[in-house]
Amino acid sequence: MEGSPYPIRYQVFGVSRPSDFSLFIDYVAGSIEQRRTNIISLISDGADAALKRWCMFGHLSDCDVFEIECLPDQVSAEEAVGFWRAYFASLGEEIVSAKHICGDA
């Protein structure tokens, strides 16, 4: 965003379905607070086959989206997604292997 005194920050987020201990992790430019509904729509209505299968087994809501961490740039956010997917998988969570869903600003 030209002229802004603050760089666009990236937030790594998770979307959880506690009923089956499954989790999707991705990142978004800006704040997830302003994009929760959009994130759920992108998961539910998007083209990614893994996410479509995941959504078939239960409804997701805004409260299923949570912030994991905030980072200064897109490269750091991409690396963090890989880290957090591996971390949560090591704890026994089923990680949904899906592509990046949010268009980057």
UniProtKB/TrEMBL annotation:
<protein>
    <recommendedName>
        <fullName>CdiI immunity protein domain-containing protein</fullName>
    </recommendedName>
</protein>
